[in-house]
Amino acid sequence: xxxxxxxxxxxxxxxxxxxxxxxxxxxxxxxxxxxxxxxxxxxxxxxxxxxxxxxxxxxxxxxxxxxxxxxxxxxxxxxxxxxxxxxxxxxxxxxxxxxxxxxxxxxxxxxxxxxxxxxxxxxxxxxxxxxxxxxxxxxxxxxxxxxxxxxxxxxxxxxxxxxxxxxxxxxxxxxxxxxxxxxxxxxxxxxxxxxxxxxxxxxxxxxxxxxxxxxxxxxxxxxxxxxxxxxxxxxxxxxxxxxxxxxxxxxxxxxxxxxxxxxxxxxxxxxxxxxxxxxxxxxxxxxxxxxxxxxxxxxxxxxxxxxxxxxxxxxxxxxxxxxxxxxxxxxxxxxxxxxxxxxxxxxxxxxxxxxxxxxxxxxxxxxxxxxxxxxxxxxxxxxxxxxxxxxxxxxxxxxxxxxxxxxxxxxxxxxxxxxxxxxxxxxxxxxxxxxxxxxxxxxxxxxxxxxxxxxxxxxxxxxxxxxxxxxxxxxxxxxxxxxxxxxxxxxxxxxxxxxxxxxxxxxxxxxxxxxxxxxxxxxxxxxxxxxxxxxxxxxxxxxxxxxxxxxxxxxxxxxxxxxxxxxxxxxxxxxxxxxxxxxxxxxxxxxxxxxxxxxxxxxxxxxxxxxxxxxxxxxxxxxxxxxxxxxxxxxxxxxxxxxxxxxxxxxxxxxxxxxxxxxxxxxxxxxxxxxxxxxxxxxxxxxxxxxxxxxxxxxxxxxxxxxxxxxxxxxxxxxxxxxxxxxxxxxxxxx
Length: 735
Ligand code: PEP
Ligand code: MG
Fold this sequence. Notes:
Layout: H1 7-21, E1 26-33, E2 37-44, E3 55-57, H2 61-69, E4 73-75, E5 97-105, E6 108-117, H3 125-143, E7 164-167, E8 169-172, E9 175-182, H4 197-220, H5 228-239, H6 243-254, H7 259-273, H8 280-300, E10 316-320, H9 325-330, E11 336-341, H10 349-357, E12 361-363, H11 368-371, E13 377-381, E14 386-389, H12 393-416, E15 430-435, H13 442-447, E16 452-456, H14 458-463, H15 470-484, E17 489-492, H16 520-525, H17 527-541, E18 546-550, H18 556-575, E19 584-590, H19 599-602, E20 608-611, H20 613-620, H21 628-631, H22 639-655, E21 658-661, H23 669-678, E22 682-685, H24 690-698, H25 702-712, H26 721-731
Parallel strand pairs: 9-10, 10-11, 11-12, 15-16, 15-22, 16-17, 17-18, 18-19, 19-20, 20-21
Antiparallel strand pairs: 1-2, 1-6, 2-3, 4-5, 5-6, 7-14, 8-12, 9-13, 13-14
Helix pairs in contact: 4-5, 4-8, 5-10, 6-7, 7-8, 12-24, 15-17, 17-18, 23-24, 23-25
The structure holds phosphoenolpyruvate (PEP) and magnesium ion.
Magnesium ion binds next to helix 20.
Enzyme class: transferase
Protein name: phosphoenolpyruvate--protein phosphotransferase
GO molecular function: kinase activity; metal ion binding; phosphoenolpyruvate-protein phosphotransferase activity
């Protein structure tokens, strides 16, 4: 560095030296330029013509990834990395392994230093450290202003202040923009021991009283309405009355701790005891307990809220490690635009409350708290399970456009609400929604759906803390039927096992849970449990018509056994003199391929068939629906899959048995179009998809399309998707 020469010459020298010393065929330096672009400034090994020509956006390719996350990367097989971005001008296709480090000055990323090797090799820690040392030297050179005018890159402080995109999991859909409001971290305790336990006990008593009163107020808040989010809060409120918890704190105070320290101890002890437990139920309780402890600490400190509402921007996105349901409700709902969590699952209590508030939520975003500063612009893209931190102007604009387009589309779909769901050439189609939570039922009104084609009864089981007894189940199902107001609801009996774990039952040790002990298999092996559910369904219906279906049936005998249990419950209710359903329809989910070859017998016994394409496709293709590597490997629009579906639909039609589709296929316009072409007339989907499907079918000439589809079905191509797409485009079918 001390040598004479221009900064560029010194860079060229560095890449030569590093490549030589580290036995790498390539060493390259990228420098950050305005507009968050990384420009190749020097290279040993790559095509020299690419210098000052190759530019990567921050976040693009592996180099961009290193800058975006401000962290080193070491890859034995770089080309198979999902971020690999091939730049033909560099000639780098022959290099297999790669290691790179960010050029950091303070917390700022100024560039990237990377080495590559032709053969696949592992770089060790020492080598990464060497690169980091060189990068420190480089940082000084870049900062000297000799390479890039320092004014070119805006002066910003703090790590990773470059825009970044982070992946997470969708906890609630939707897209929004707002300013980051990091959720207040836990209150720190300064006083640990107390002289006067009596006085401390009184302080604790008063604070607990105040916390309970706060929670009661929240529950009384009229606009929360009814549904699971309310029950979640009620469970949470009950926690505050938990005798064991209160006693533990009292004891610790009697031992000489302050009320604050005692509350913290009670929490720390519990957390330590359950540290290794991954059981979702326990994790959820811990997060409730953490919320409650923080509330108590706040009250003890004489405040009632940690946040300072005067600092809240008008449009805010709350960012937290995890959040309790009550904590979320502390935020001003008129300003709340979204929520980003480091933890959380779709059925976590906070996600349920967020759904009720209709804000997008992305969870399991790694280290989000370290990566945002208060006031940072944040895009919460719940639909695609991603978050943009400090997005570039173009991205913000694009998202704003997406939001307004969605709004326009929502309005257009709302206009369709009262128009008939019929194709252009006059075929009526029944559009229904899939539901699981009470709140989903609101969508019957907003979408104008005909009914609930799939009510997943396991969902209310999954959000509760204990197994609901017959009475509780009866009340859940009765409320669903009330909300459906006469529209049909197909109740599917418990489909647990597989990926759906009941918190209080725990996971089974099935090696292959999707094909293991799940759904009707559990129901038939534990008939008392299934009977209780059927009893509750019969009681909830009263005189109203009742529709029940069984999941994962693989043979006629299973259907027979399950419907026999239902008949027993009906008989029992009648014998007790109870009012029983005016009409009972008993059906099944067609999800296991073996049933396709039992249709003849089956169709004489069932009232209806609902095709669960999510499971059916995973079993037809032997491709795990939850595994992204194989999940999209096979297309449900392949002639093979469609021939199987056609056979089912034709058989049902011939037997005069109603057939519907309730898997995700029914909600994707192009797939819904294909299903209509195969003869399906009832589609059940998540409420958000209904507008698009209705818009599609209202623009469709079904007779013409059905004939076209028939002509394709005998083909042997991988997928008919492109052909169907082209057809739709040519014929003005709105997809
Ligand atoms: C299906 O398998 O298609 C289905 C609708 O059921 P679930 O997604 O609940 O397994
Ligand atoms: Mg299924």
